[in-house]
Amino acid sequence: MGGLRDLAREDWDILVVGGGNAALCAALTAAEAGARVLILEAAPKVYRGGNSRHTRNFRCMHSGPLSVLTDRYGEDEYYDDLIRVTGGETDPNLARMTIRASEECLPWMEARGVRFQPSLSGTLSLSRTNAFFLGGGKALVNAYYNSAEDLGVGVAYEAEVTHVALSGDAFSHLSVRQGDEAAEIGAKAVVLASGGFQSDIDWLARAWGPAARNFLIRGTPYNRGVVLRDMLDQGARSVGDPTQCHAVAIDGRAPKFDGGIVTRLDCVPFSIVVNAEGDRFYDEGEDVWPKRYAIWGRLVAGQPGQVAYSIIDAKAMDLFMPSVFPPERAETVEALGAKLGLAGAKLAATVAAFNAACRDGPFAPTELDGRGTEGLSPPKTNWARPINTPPYYGYQLRPGVTFTYLGLQVSDAARVQGAAGPLRNVWAAGEIMAGSILGKGYLAGFGMTIGTVFGRIAGREAARHAA
Amino acid sequence: MRPDPIGEARRQIEICNACRYCEGYCAVFPAITVQKSFADGDIVQLANLCHNCRGCYYACQYVPPHEFALNLPAALAEARLESWERFAWPGGLARLFQRSGGAVALALGLGVALLFAAIRAFGTGEGEGFYALLGHSAMVAIFLPAFLLPLLALGVGLRRYWREVGGAPLRLADLRAALKNAASLRNLGGGQGQGCNFEAGDRFSDRRRRLHQAALYGFLLCFAATASATVMLYIFGLEAPYGFLTPPKLLGVPGGLLLAAGSGGLLWLKRKTPKELGAPSAWSAENAFSALLFFVAVSGLALYALGGTVAEAALLALHLGGVAALFLLTPYSKMAHGFYRLAALARDAQRVRAGAGDRPG
């Protein structure tokens, strides 16, 4: 592919802003319909694919066994699962349409090179609802880029869109920067699929508060929300809480960006969690980890310095997936506290108080075993075994941001809504509009579902407009 | 290359174990996920189980410049190479022939020179065909040790391997599983038969698997041709040369053609693959090894085609010299990979058998 100015001279039907799953689904759909499509991906090639690079599965409705999916997963059950995590903060019509459309997406994905595999070890609970990508999200992204290349779709890497030029209710061109080069590229239609703003730490800090500067960003550093901001500044209608992001508790030693799946820590239910002062602050055994890991991001974010420490003993070490960073380890709780940078005596006192509150009873790591503490505040309501078997281990926890909720409002045809009504030739797909459906919480594999469904709709509608 | 191949492979495998996205590609990942910590022997087993299909590299979100800097195919290739050098007996020979293409070429030259000298010294003019050029007992005197000594050395190496990876007593079922796996090269199939990522970047292609199997089956056919000739001579008293419709030719000609196509094709394919996804220090020796296979195949075919002409003596020396070099280098060259790979597959079959239904959640 030539330089930016060469690209600007070509005659494009559709420009796709972004290079992840939603962008690729839009580009493939439009190109298959005969449109001339150019993808503008802000990341370099090795980091292409946005947060899709870190994903691993696709939540899919199905009325019977489908590809690697077992049994059935009906619309109502799927919708109930969504309502449970969002607490009702969703657009019911868009949500149900997305769920229904997911079923036909899976064979569509396979036909474009995506391969699925049975549920990964340690994720058997998802084998009915979520189809896992063979090799993960980057393999999916690679398959789509190859299919796009075969269709003659243009791709420009390190091409950052800085402005979407609108006149009235219509898009005219994009301002694009690539290294030292800048150009204006026009087309008949544009699909915005450039993700959320979670990697713009200043924006995050303005929205959430200064504590957000201590957050880690689990995914791509390229989702800076430049296009989202530009569209909102031009009066596009928004959805989603502008102050909120989805954050989970991850290993505090993870890189600032792009740590992805390996930085997760699943030890919390089998541990006690203390803050920098050495005090416990929440019931670690409230529910099984898959149902609780999401709230711990917020909990840790509320602690001094946005940091916490999960403390276990030798008994618990084999109960959870290995972490990428080895834990701190010591023969006494005091020594462990010192290694973690905590007051050792204080940590020992917290552990002793916890141990004294533990009761005997059966311990069952994979279910709510009801083995709670007595007379402890806050209590630990399940899996409360004394921490008394050396060596002792400790992990640092910090909030890891997965995505932001603020997005562009879209119609059920993925059309972006301007101040004075729908824009004529602007569509959106993926994280940039996901807040319409996922207003709160998170449902595993649902981000990829929204991206695929709306990417395909946006591509189809844009191609129809351009034809 | 990092200074400590096993340590570097361990660092990467521990990251893989916290991710597991690649579980469906090959046998390496399921073998990783049943463990939490990895002793040196575990790393060596995983390294030899890896077929270098590279699927995991292209699917990996942590490849350089990411600070986790994962390149598992290369890390395992380096650990594998280091293990072959350690297991080989005598060890120094492996360090030479696994890393230096020049040394492989030199061995070929020595083999050919040896055969020329032998023909000059022992060519009796009696007997028919090749035996007129090189007497039967001279042939046996050269090739019996050239066949048996490498087998002995390989046996020592494999024993060391088995001990290091903690293998249990071998059962027939383990061997059968390993051979079945090798026969289809399932681990170069990407998990779903789509092939590997060798010469076409992140696109899958089955070329490498097909070419490798052409070379493998071609070699086995050639070997069977030689064995059948031995049987015809010693059991039935039938002396060479053999006609086209005899086992040595019916096996040997297709075998030679397959071996030539496979080894030549692999050489050609290797020019299109990024060096840094394997063990770069083995690059020249790997190429030289494929070239040696190609040389043996083509010289054998030429010997058959031009038998009875003035070129026959020279071709016989070239071909038998190549065969001698190939056999003698087996424990120390890329040729050894097949034997260690079989051992790793057999060991993995033991793991699967022992751990059936016993994977942690």
Short summary:
The complex is a heterodimer of chains A (467) and B (361). Chain A contains twelve helices and 19 strands.
Protein described:
Chain A folds into two domains: 4-241 and 405-466, FAD/NAD(P)-binding domain (3-Layer(bba) Sandwich); 248-400, Succinate dehydrogenase/fumarate reductase flavoprotein, catalytic domain (Flavocytochrome C3, Chain A, domain 1, Alpha-Beta Complex). Chain A has helices at residues 4-9, 21-32, 75-86, 92-111, 137-150, 201-208, 226-233, 289-292, 295-301, 333-340, 344-357, 446-466, and strands spanning 12-17, 37-40, 57-59, 116-117, 130-133, 154-156, 160-167, 170-178, 181-192, 216-217, 238-239, 245-251, 272-275, 308-313, 328-330, 392-404, 407-408, 415-418, 421-428. Chain A is α/β, with parallel strands linked by helices and 467 residues long. Chain A is built from twelve helices and 19 strands. In chain A, the strands form four sheets. In chain A, strands 1, 2, 6, 7, 8, 9, 18 and 19 form an eight-stranded mixed sheet that branches. In chain A, strands 10, 12, 13, 14, 15 and 16 form a six-stranded mixed sheet that branches. The longest helix of chain A is centred in the last third of the chain and has 21 residues, at 446-466. The two termini of chain A are 24 Å apart. In chain A, strand 1, helix 2 and strand 2 form a beta-alpha-beta unit. Chain B has 361 residues and is mainly α. Chain B has one domain (86-355). In chain B, 67% of the residues lie in helices and 0% in strands. Chain B has helices at residues 5-19, 28-33, 40-49, 55-59, 72-87, 91-99, 101-122, 130-133, 136-164, 172-184, 207-234, 247-270, 283-305, 312-329, 336-355. The longest helix of chain B has 29 residues, at 136-164. The model of chain B is unreliable at 357-361 (pLDDT under 50). Chain A binds chain B through residues 46, 53-54, 56, 115, 117-118, 120-122, 124, 133-139, 142, 145-146, 255, 258, 260-262, 264, 318, 321-324, 366, and chain B through 14-15, 17-25, 30, 33, 36, 55-56, 58-63, 65-68, 190-192, 194, 202-203, 359-361.
